[in-house]
Amino acid sequence: MPKVTFRIADTDSRTIDAPDGTSVMLVAVQAGIPGIVGECGGDMSCATCHVYVEDQTGFKKRSADEEDLLELSDDLRETSRLSCQLKLSAATPEVEVEVPPHD
Ligand code: FES
C-alpha cells in the first residue's frame, strides 16, 4: 500500500497509507490536509489541488491540459503537479508531496 507524506508549510508533516488506484488529491481531501481543496473533484478544471513533488518516479508525466491549468497557479515550479492527476500504485510506494503556502 503506497504511503504519502504531505509536508505542510515547512512545519508539519503527515504520512498516510493509501490504496492503489486512488489519487493524491483524494488522499489529501479525505485526510483534511490544509491547502488541498480538490474543488472540481479531479476533473482538471480548478487547480485547487496544486502540489510540488520532487521525485515523480512512477507517475505519468504532465499532460498538455495539466500544464495549461498549472500555468494559472500561483507559485508555479518545475515540480508543480495537479495532485488529482497523481494516481497511486505499486510503482509509487513512497511519495513525498509539498503543499504550497496558502492564505
Ligand atoms: S481537483 Fe480540480 S484540478 Fe485537480
TrEMBL record:
Residues 2-103 form the 2Fe-2S ferredoxin-type domain. GO terms for biological process: P450-containing electron transport chain. The keyword Iron-sulfur applies. Keywords: 2Fe-2S, Iron, Iron-sulfur, Metal-binding. InterPro entries: 2Fe-2S_ferredoxin-like_sf (IPR036010), 2Fe-2S_ferredoxin-type (IPR001041), Adrenodoxin-like (IPR001055), Beta-grasp_dom_sf (IPR012675). It holds the Pfam family Fer2. GO terms for molecular function: 2 iron, 2 sulfur cluster binding; electron transfer activity; metal ion binding. The keyword tRNA-binding does not apply. PROSITE patterns: 2FE2S_FER_2. Its cofactor is [2Fe-2S] cluster. It comes from the Bacteria. Gene3D superfamilies: 3.10.20.30. Belongs to the adrenodoxin/putidaredoxin family. This is Rhodocoxin.
